[in-house]
Amino acid sequence: MGIPDFQSFLLPVLRLASSRDVRTKDSLDAISDEFGLTEEERDTPLPSGKRTVVASRLSWALYYLARAGMLENKVRGVYSITQKGQDLLSRGFEKLPPRFYGKNLLSLPHFTKTSGKERSHPTGSVRATSLKTQWRRVRKKLWSGHMGYCVTP
């Protein structure tokens, strides 16, 4: 069968969250059992070798569900279902239609409200701000004589 894509994880994760709080490490076995994954599939590492494919896909599913307002993350790494998530489950889907993920998920108002694209910094881009901050630090060190020079700020 193979390991399903992360979109296939969305509904099972939501169902799991309706019965208890979801933690990535604690939920791996329950989700793997639901998909009928073999031990070899459960232990398949990502190319980086840092995590398993199943753990990565579960994490992405949790991330997208939380960003869409279906789950809430009150404590780091612990997710619980919201009313919005309960409402979606009550619709009785066997599998989520494509309109609930991908570009459609990204277009949900709650998702875009908290996405990085909507954030703005008063002085411009984050990169420009960090460069300004770094330049101030260098000037301060130069001014204080740490580098052996005396440059006015």
Secondary-structure topology with pairs:
Blueprint: H1 6-19, E1 22-23, H2 24-35, H3 39-42, H4 53-67, E2 71-75, E3 78-81, H5 83-89, H6 103-106, H7 109-114, H8 126-144
Antiparallel strand pairs: 1-3, 2-3
User: Helix count, per DSSP?
Assistant: 8
Spans of at least 5 consecutive residues with low confidence: 114-127
**Radius of gyration using CA atoms only:** 22 Å
Q: How many DSSP-defined strands?
A: 3
Rough shape?
extended
Largest sheet: 3 strands, antiparallel
Q: Biggest sheet: strands side by side, in what order?
A: 1-3-2
Helix amount, in percent?
40-55%
Q: SSE string, helix = H, strand = E?
A: HEHHHEEHHHH
Short description:
This protein is mainly alpha-helical. It contains eight helices and three strands, in the order αβαααββαααα.
Please characterize this protein's 3D structure.
With 153 residues, the protein is mostly helical. It is 53% helix and 7% strand. It is built from eight helices and three strands; from the N terminus they run H-E-H-H-H-E-E-H-H-H-H. The protein has a three-stranded antiparallel sheet. A hairpin with a 2-residue loop joins strand 2 and strand 3. Helix 1 packs across helix 2, helix 1 (6-19) packs across helix 4 and helix 2 (24-35) packs across helix 4. The longest helix has 19 residues, at 126-144. The radius of gyration is 22 Å and the shape is extended.
